[in-house]
Amino acid sequence: MFNIEKIRADFPALQQLINGQPLVYLDSAATTQKPRSVISATEQFYARNNANVHRGRHTLSEQATQAYEQARLTVANYFNITASELVWTKGATEAINLVANGLTEQLNDNSTIIISALEHHANIVPWQQLAKRTGAKLLALPLQQNGCFDVQTCVKFIEQHKPSVLAITHASNALGNITDLDPILHAAKRHDAITLVDGAQAALHLQPNLPQLGCDFYVFSAHKMLGPTGLGGLYGRYDRLNSLAVYQTGGEMIETVTLAKTVFRQTPAKFEAGTPNIAAVIAFAAAIDYLTSLSKASVYTHEQIIFNYAAEKLQGIAGVTIYSSLENNIGTLCFNYRDEHPFDIATLLDGYGIAVRSGHHCAQPLMQHLGINGCVRASFALYNNHSDVDLFIAALQNCLELLD
Ligand code: PMP
Fold first, then answer.
1. φ and ψ at 76, to 5 degrees?
2. What is the DSSP secondary-structure string of 306-339?
3. Which residues line ligand 1 (CB under 6 A)?
4. Which pTM value belongs to this model?
5. Which of 3, 32, 110, 166 is deepest in the core (most CB within 10 A)?
């Protein structure tokens, strides 16, 4: 049974006043709040279990190594993958860079990379740089005016351009729209393209089964999944992952080093140079344990109820333009009010304790596509309730009156 009050009580940050008002946190697309178990796992690690991992012969180091590798298993289980297919990175950004850099020797000026205008900059710029290094062509999938993909058009586009690489988001960070990945990934696979899915936004809400999804690479950020900042992950189908050139080099990722030559460790260790963010990995496993202790279906249903409630209320305000698709959405509402500046709306809302984001959301090509400079984004997660929506809408109406 999904108990929203119990869930809210698990998140200490939600219990505070901001500007004298109860915090209404609607910025989970930027980063989620953390349950108490994640905060205590971090504290516990530094207070008691702190030691560097791997190679240490003392008890603390062995315990830290065990907890660290157990955490890899916990997160791998969440995605239904094996621990050897999971590389720790410092975020989704680094995970995409790792892949894009690792593919440099596999592409040339006959290659085509396909991305889309819906992407976060993190899933655009590394591919632009890869195209620059290799001479590959960089193309964008056609996007409908409303920011949704027409799947048939995308499939035709892929068949026409036969890409070597396809990188696409699972859900838009700006709009929340969920991509219908199946037909797009199938089309790419028919041409043996290497496929990367940016799961930074979707991994929390959709809890994807990655082998079933069928992409070669999937990236995510722990801090958008109730976990700590400074940690992300890269899933790679083992053969694809193993075929990437190493990204960073140094300690931890080596088997042997002489002054003349280095032998790397096996995948995934060869992609993890240097001392990892051990506390974050262990705390992230606590976040995953928290999530999986709840029923996936009831979390999703709750999130959709709150999203639909908010969408309906927002639609009722004259002068508001909503850019997000109201179907197949992870729970993000992007909007503007007449020609008011989104920063002004976000700043006024903050006075009421409402945390939303405004601007281009690291998706400038999407903003250009929509013909706007930016918008206000209210993004929801499992801990939001009806009262959050009511407070948000009431505050928004007051702010808009002030702006009129
Ligand atoms: N992709 C998407 C869709 C995102 O929303 C984000 C974060 N806003 C990223 C990539 C980059 O994630 P990070 O900053 O955690 O590396």
1. -60, -40
2. HHHHHHHHHHTSTTEEE-S-SSSBSSEEEEEETT
3. 91-93, 120, 122-123, 169, 173, 198, 200-201, 221, 232, 362
4. 0.98
5. 166
For the question of an ipTM over 0.90, the answer is yes
**Could you tell me the two tokens for 236?**
């790679």
Q: Is 375 a known active-site residue?
A: no
**Structure tokens that stand for 292 in this block:** 């999986």
- Does the structural domain 40-292 have CATH classification 3.40.640.10? yes
Distance between Cα 198 and ligand 1 center (Å): 8
Domain boundaries, the chain: 4-26+296-403, 40-292
Homologous superfamily (CATH) of 4-26+296-403 is Aspartate Aminotransferase, domain 1 (3.90.1150.10)
Q: Which of 224, 234, 366 to mutate to test the pocket of ligand 1 (most atoms within 8 A of CB)?
A: 224
The C-alpha torsion from 291 through 271 and 173 to 295, rounded to 10°, is -10
